[in-house]
Amino acid sequence: MSNRMIMGKYINTGSWMHQLDPRAKTIAMLLFMVAVFLVRSSVDLVILAAYSVAVMATTRISFRTYARSLRPLLFLMVFIFVFHVLFDTGGSWYVDLGPVKFYSGGLQKGFLSVSRMVLFVAFTAVLTLTTPPLLLTQALESLMKPLALVGLSPRKITLMLTTSLRFIPTVFEEANKILRAQASRGMDLRDQNVLQKAKLLISLLVPVTVGAIRRASELVDSMEARGYRLHAPRSRFHELTWGWGDTLLVGSTALLIGITQLV
Amino acid sequence: MALEFQQVTYTYPGGAGERRIGLDALDLVLQEGRFIAVLGASGSGKSTLLQHFNGILLPTGGQLLILDYTLTPGMSGKGMKELRRRVGLAFQFPEQQLFAETVEEDLLYGPRNFGMKPEDARIAAHKAAKALGLGEELLGRNPFHLSGGQMRKTAIATVLAADPDVLVLDEPAATLDQASREELLTLLADLCRQEGKTVILVTHRLEEVLPYAEEYVLMDQGKAVFHGSPRELLETDGLMERAGIVAPPAVRFLRSFSERFGTSLPDGPYRADELARFIRDVIRKEPPACPIA
């Protein structure tokens, strides 16, 4: 199960994108998110898709890997599309199928929403696939420094994020092991109908949650036993450095917002 | 009936460069009704091997003949319930095997799924708990609130409760104290001798299975590099060392003793009292010229 999880998985190909400052990649991702939400037409979509494909190509990671990152959201995308098609009544024409009418506005909005989601998730994958989790959190901590002015601790937030990211595959692996134990004692998920499958998956909630809490508590003890103090001053093995490539990435993504607004 | 692995390969799924081979064209034939210990260094494929016995893992190459079942690559994995009723598997980590709200519920899970009547399932669960020394007072408790040893015993009892023909156990005695370890292994040996059950267990401690195991399988890099009697295992020079296992002191002593006296070891299993008798008989027949080093 965890092997199919592509989100949050770092793949090192040594590309130009891998060498960039994680802060630049994070800012670019946020700017791209803004661009995605400002999309109004198919032309905007094509421009964003072309930019996104170009950025993905520079990472030297196969497009199949990016496609796999979309897989967990497939159901949600289908749901959003169907919802728009069934309940959105805008547009200039419609198809009458007796009890159901499909409006062109619904189709358009459904397509736009799903495309936005695809573009955003695939572009976000550039960040997570090309940045080791530790550098990513270091970048977040650096970008969140202003939050200290309002009394929030960036280090606390990034520690929570790192720990959560670290435990995602573990929690999946743990759930998988319990499913195997249940299969071994005669309750194989593959032999069950949809209702029984849902029941079986719900029965995982308690042991997996208990396991996650136990692990978190053990992790805290282990960190404290090795002298970790949250606000103690600490040095960094990797110092973040900003170069011309970082400016180029952030600048081109910002330019993208301008272009899509002008077109 | 035999449990047969024919050129079985298992590769763990993963992206390019991440694929890990668990079993590598493994050939192995085990007979029913025997007490078999599987040894090997960490990562040698022991746990992967065990998870093939009841179809939890299916081969990616070759085929397995387990009881009346043939397991081949690409099978859907559906309809394995009867195989799993007959082959009980206790996993390496008990905390990942228990999931019910009480110990009793966990013990009843297997028997109920395998179609036992509620009353029979309850009797089987209580019998298994008793056999493992789990008192009645523990049955109502949450399995996650038990001690490590109690959790391990509960995990093994959940398998015993379904009364399988073949018991497959991954390091069942780890985390148990010495007394509980001996009790558990004696129980397994009794199930093997008196009820004809097959016991296949993985262990890192050769000395703890010496008194019980009738056959040994030695795993190294996904292959069974040895399968034979206790005597062959102990007498074959460098066999264990090549597979990354350090022979325990008792084994080193036996080897040294048999070399010094130019005598062959008994067939095994090696119970302490039988070994003492063997040593006494050899020394009486031919006293050593110098004290044993």
Would you mind describing this structure in some detail?
- The complex is a heterodimer of chains A (263) and B (293).
- By secondary structure, chain A is mainly alpha-helical.
- Chain A is built from 11 helices and 2 strands, in the order H-H-H-H-H-E-E-H-H-H-H-H-H.
- Chain A has helices at 16-19, 22-37, 42-58, 63-70, 74-87, 104-130, 133-143, 154-184, 194-202, 205-225, 244-262, and strands spanning 94-97, 100-103.
- The two termini of chain A are 43 Å apart.
- The model of chain A is unreliable at 1-6 (pLDDT under 50).
- Chain B has 293 residues and is α/β, with parallel strands linked by helices.
- Chain B has a single domain, classed as Rossmann fold (3-Layer(aba) Sandwich), CATH 3.40.50.
- In chain B, 37% of the residues lie in helices and 22% in strands.
- In chain B, strands 6-7-8-3-9-10 form a 6-stranded mixed beta sheet.
- The longest helix of chain B has 18 residues, at 178-195.
- Chain B starts with a strand and ends in an 8-residue tail after the last helix.
- The chains are: A mainly alpha (263), B alpha/beta (293).
